[in-house]
Design brief:
This protein has 287 residues and is of the alpha/beta class. 39% of the residues lie in helices and 11% in strands. It is built from eleven helices and six strands. The protein has a six-stranded mixed beta sheet with strand order 1-3-2-4-6-5. Helix 3 (85-97) packs parallel to helix 7. The N and C termini lie far apart (51 Å). The structure holds uracil.
Length: 287
């Protein structure tokens, strides 16, 4: 039913719900309506300590097993609304840098309070697949299915991605899959610069710890964030770039996002070309 065709007034509850769903409002994020024209009450700032916490005493064998899943102490909470984007990014960078293993980093991401998206997300979505894989695919942000299941690329676009990977002999055993954002933007809106900056140190550290040999960035936000591309994805896709950071140089390919392919099946030919490029690069590297 299209609510614009409705003639009765006032509209029924169903018509109102459909109106909002058509407008992309598909999540209820609070029990009570909030009047956003009113200034928020003053809140006490929770600031990141300027200096990192002192190093902990050496761990016993039992303690170090437990620490595997605990974020290091620098991952203290921050209140994003009260800090500038660069302060939040700095807090994220300190928290990420303190992590020496992927489980530690995962725990630090889950404990991080610097990205406002966390407040409306059901789950923190970090990665799936094999962290030791030679190929790492990095997308944009969890969608509704990913938010519900806590895993990246498990919805319709993820299933298409899996089929594309399978066509070049890749699966969860030899591919590692993540996103530049770890929480779903409400209604799948584009992420803001602040949200991207808050998460960027974590995805950079994940790349550092996973050490993939080839990276594919799915969509313009992933390519712009990690490769610094400034043109649209239809221009940058299909050509090799470099992921460069602190002595790391990894060949990286921007890809059309699978969600875009679902909407524009006419560009599957370009997408197939890019998958073949990925396969050729991996083969050339003996991977
Ligand atoms: N789109 C993305 O970019 N990432 C996901 O995990 C799902 C959809």
């Amino acid at each position: 039913m299209n609510v614009t065709e409705a003639t009765d007034f006032p509209p029924s509850l169903l018509e109102i719900v459909l109106f909002y769903a058509e407008a992309g409002v598909d999540e209820a994020i609070g029990e009570q309506p909030v009047d956003r024209t009113q200034a928020p009450p003053p809140r006490e700032a929770v600031r990141q300590p300027a200096n990192p916490a002192p190093a902990a005493a050496p761990a016993t064998a039992g303690q170090s097993a437990q620490r595997q899943a605990m974020p290091p102490r620098q991952a203290a909470s921050v209140t994003p609304a009260l800090l500038s984007a660069s302060e939040v990014e700095g807090a994220a960078r300190r928290a990420a840098k303190a992590c020496q293993t992927i489980p530690e980093l995962e725990a630090a991401i889950r404990a991080f309070e610097g990205c406002g998206l966390k407040a409306t997300a059901t789950n923190t979505v970090i990665a799936r697949g094999n962290p030791q894989a030679p190929l790492m695919i990095i997308g944009e942000a969890p969608g509704r299915d990913e938010d519900a299941q806590g895993l990246p690329f498990v919805g319709e676009s993820g299933q298409l991605l899996d089929r594309m990977l399978k066509a070049i002999g890749r699966d969860e055993q030899n591919t590692y899959i993540s996103n530049i954002l770890f929480w779903r933007p409400p209604g799948n809106r584009d992420p803001s610069t602040e949200e991207i900056l808050a998460c960027k140190p974590f995805i950079e550290r994940l790349i550092e710890l996973a050490q993939p040999k080839v990276i594919a960035c799915a969509g313009k936000h992933a390519a712009a964030t990690l490769l610094g591309t400034t043109q649209g994805i239809t221009r940058t896709r299909g050509r090799w770039h470099e992921y460069q950071r602190e002595g790391i140089n990894i060949p990286a390919m921007p890809l059309l996002h699978p969600a875009y392919l679902l909407r524009q099946p006419g560009v599957k030919r370009e997408a197939w070309h890019d998958m073949l490029e990925l396969a050729a690069k991996l083969e050339q590297l003996g991977l």
